Amino acid sequence: MPTGDKGNENGPPFISMTEDSTLHGVTIYYPNQPGNQVPTPFPWTLSLSGNNVAVTDVECLNCFNAIRAVGAHRHYIARVQGQPINMGVLVDQTYDVGRIEDVHWNPWYSNTKEYMSWQLLYGRAFVFARTDWEYVFNTFAFGYAIGYHFVASPQGSCNGNFLGIGADMMANASVQVDSSDAFGILITNGEFTAFVDSHFGTQLGGSGTTGFADCTFTQWDDSKQGHYAIEVNGATGNLLVNNCDFQYEGNQINLGNSTTLARAVITGNVIKGATRISGKAHNTQKGLNADSTSTP
Predict the structure, then answer these.
(1) Per residue in 89-128, pLDDT tens?
(2) Are 188 and 210 within one domain?
């Protein structure tokens, strides 16, 4: 039950873990964090560094910032749950494979208006900077500003494998990629639900290649404002959209009328209603998009 450094986010962590250490089977609860008002900052709860540090079967019930893994090569974070307010997990400067699995952030501690308004405005569930092939498996977050945030630190960006990840009711973006290592970010079996009108957070920019394969898009424009499921804004790279199912009768893809996008390949997709693909890249291939207007 940490009580120190109330109001001081930059104070020393509650628990600092170094090489070959493990924290297992505890619940961490901040008794001075009221759940019916704007949250109070506290320092990081757990700070991991060094090789082979593990956090398993731990509840971070109402931490402000829960787990920081910086320079924690081969870290293992598993079966962790709770409601971190500002940041759930931060990974940086990890140069050997780190693993995060079965982590679940949900508003179990407080869902009052004052508490959740702050969390939806500022909170980030998972933040990844420099980590070399991070393995993330079966993770979920509910009710933050950003679910999975990929950023650059002075040491670089993330590349990794993200399997079975989910995010519900993210106010800004379920997945926001500000920076990626050249080896890329692979997301498989992801589940992202906005709970408010959005275009799924698929606003694309940057110079890399972004691909959507075997994805399902639905309800991205319930308010009928003309949103697209996928929208390109100033990207200079490539877009691949293959074998996807657009289950909503609306605009599907906007490449932009003056886009600098290099290439776009849009093939083999199942579309409800008319095909609505706007704009063009320098080189666009469209084909084999099945119009389902004649089917139930």
Answers:
(1) 999 999 999 999 999 999 999 999 999 999 999 999 999 9
(2) no
